[in-house]
Amino acid sequence: MKEYREHHTALTRGYVSKKSAGIKESYKGKFGEGYTVRRYNPQSTRFCYITYYVA
Q1: Is the dihedral of CA 9, 12, 14, 15 positive or negative?
Q2: Which of 45, 49, 53, 55 has its CA 20 to 30 A from that of 1?
Q3: Please, which residues have CB within 8 angstroms of residue 33's CB and are 6 or more apart in sequence?
Q4: Total count of domains within the chain
Q5: Beta-bridge partner residues of 55
Q6: pTM (2 decimals)?
Q7: What is the pLDDT of residue 1?
């Protein structure tokens, strides 16, 4: 089983409810393979935080 570590956090367009624990999606791209988690941003309704976890 692969061990994933947090690579970085950025802003992305979209809204995630504050009641949500986050939206987890698989990821394969520029930073490697792993998954992303989109989280609520209390400062905006147009942008949410996205954190990249890569192997």
Answers
A1: positive
A2: 49
A3: 27, 54, 55
A4: 1
A5: none
A6: 0.90
A7: 73
